[in-house]
Amino acid sequence: MANPLLEPGLVVAGHGRHVLVETPDGRRLICHPRGKKSQTVVGDRVLWQATQDEGTIEKVVERRNLFYRQDEIRTKMFAANLDQVLVLIAAEPVFSESQLSRALIAAEAEKITPIIALNKSDLTEPFGQAWERMGVYREMGYTVVPLALKPKAEGIAATELEALLPLLHGKTTLILGPSGSGKSTFINRLLPGAQVLTNEISTALNSGKHTTTSTSLYWVDEAKTTAVIDSPGFQEFGLNHIEPMHLAGLMPDIKAQAGDCKFYNCTHLHEPGCGVLRALPGGRTISANRFKIYGDLFAELSQKRY
Question: Which domains does the chain show, CATH number per domain?
Answer without folding.
Answer: 7-60 (2.40.50.140), 66-230 (3.40.50.300), 244-302 (1.10.40.50)
